[in-house]
Design brief:
The chain has 5 helices and no strands. By secondary structure, the protein is an all-alpha fold.
């Protein structure tokens, strides 16, 4: 015997919002790593930013794979583009590197949200556990 839906064709139920907590924790770890880095000169700063670019690209790819909203992705993508522009220069200036570094801290802080504010160290331990 076939049963008909009692909803009367009201459509599909609303999709719950994506839980981005794990991704925000990863961003918090990137922020902690960036703040802990001892980049006292341009070559060291560029190396740290290059490492960040690789990790950020992976984070963006993972967010894309789960269908994260573009409002969440756009600031991260813009930051990655800025990192690539800076790192592609033959002779980057210290002031440019510092500006991109500060922008990275800001974007990661914003994406990480409250996770980075009080849970940076615990976020680092949790993410490190899964590596």
């Amino acid at each position: 015997m076939l049963h008909r839906s009692k909803q009367g064709g009201q459509g599909t139920p609303p999709v719950p919002p994506l839980d981005l907590t794990a991704y925000r924790l990863r961003a918090a770890v990137l922020l902690v790593d960036l703040k802990k880095a001892v980049a006292t000169d341009l070559p060291k700063r560029l190396l740290e930013l290059q490492a960040l670019a690789g990790k950020l690209a992976t984070l963006i790819g993972d967010l894309n794979s789960i269908g994260a909203p573009s409002t969440e992705l756009e600031p991260l993508k813009k930051l990655l583009n800025e990192l690539h522009r800076l790192l592609a220069k033959a002779h980057a200036r210290e002031t440019e590197a510092v500006a991109v570094w500060e922008k990275a801290e800001q974007v990661l802080q914003t994406f990480a949200g409250g996770v980075a504010a009080g849970q940076g160290a615990s976020a680092e331990r949790r993410v490190g556990f899964w590596k």
